[in-house]
Amino acid sequence: HLYKFNIEILSAIDDYGLAMDFNEVDKLYKKEIAPYLDGKLVNETLPDMNTTAENIAFWIWEQFDRLLPENNKLQKLEFFETETQGLVITSELMEK
Q: What global pTM score does this model have?
């Protein structure tokens, strides 16, 4: 599968009127998450789990949630297994 995902981050606005820089999000992804996903057989690189789309999306959520700097919060993750099929995880769902 070639999965795709989008994330939304709630970020505090600093004194310069800026939220978290998109380049910083990309750096986090490339350094901490991509080595487990990009071009990989996720059955071999992810923790021992049933690698369903749902479980992979939850794993990605957990990584971003753990890695985002203070004053930044993951709000939403849209995870697509195909162009038209996927799932959405929100902070409201994850807090339940």
A: 0.91
